[in-house]
Amino acid sequence: MGQNIAVVSGKGGTGKTSLVAHVGLNLAALGNRVLCLDCDVGLRNLDIALGMSDCGSTDFTDVLAGRCTLEEGAIPHPIQKNLFLLTAPLTLRTPVDAEAFGELMAAVEAQYDYCLVDAPAGLGDGFRLSITGTSRVIVVTTTDPTSLRDAQRTVMELSHLGDGKVHLVVNRCKRKLLRSLHQTIDDAIDTAGLPLLGVIPEDEDLPLALGRGVPLTFVYNRCAGAAYAHIARRLTGEKVPLLRIR
């Protein structure tokens, strides 16, 4: 059986979508069968981060409604073997049935080694749908106080998962910024109250790669790209040291 992992945040702009895309790419490169599932209805961007802009004509509601199978709805990545995308709809006419979505996630768990779910920001209906059928959750935050407070609030909503099932990723870290704010990564861990899965440095190459329509790991292999690779390896159980923020 595979692992369904939701990637969430209390606020927008923390880098959830980039994390899902690049960790998914790295997990697939390690030989795992991986599904990246976009649950951000109306604001989907996971296809862009994966370099698959507008590749899919189907979305997860088509699978739920029986208009296509999971195998038909999940679009293979054009370059990375073993990586698939199931995107979100642009709009919803009716709310998604949570029980049906849970059944879909059970089918995903049976067919893929890893499923990374890109949740919408906040703690609304989209958040609750995204964590349906997931066994682990990654909370993504930056080091600014508002993001850390939102991460702490998000953790409270995930208490039902139990110990060891919720992890923290601190994104867009700058050494100079941390010093100027008298903050450390330990402060972020203490504030959120979660074990640390990874630290991702601020990387000016990331928007450049997105602008070119290709994933960062296909054109650069340093800074944030290396951090995503380390996180993927940790998810498989490998012990990998944290990157030093330069």
Detailed description of the structure:
The chain is of the alpha/beta class and 246 residues long. It has one domain (3-235): 3-Layer(aba) Sandwich (Rossmann fold). It is 39% helix and 17% strand. Helix 1 (16-29) crosses helix 12 (224-235). It starts with a strand and ends in an 11-residue tail after the last helix.
CATH fold assignment: Rossmann fold
What would you call the shape?
A: globular
Major sheet strand order: 3-4-2-5-1-6-7-8
Q: What level of helicity do the residues show?
A: 25-40%
Largest sheet: 8 strands, mixed
CATH class: Alpha Beta
Structure summary, number of beta strands = 8
Q: What is the mean predicted local confidence, pLDDT?
A: 85
CATH homology superfamily? P-loop containing nucleotide triphosphate hydrolases
Architecture blueprint of SSEs:
Elements: E1 3-8, H1 16-29, E2 34-38, H2 46-49, H3 60-64, H4 70-73, E3 75-76, E4 83-86, H5 98-111, E5 114-118, H6 125-130, E6 136-141, H7 145-156, E7 166-173, H8 175-180, H9 185-192, E8 196-201, H10 205-212, H11 216-219, H12 224-235
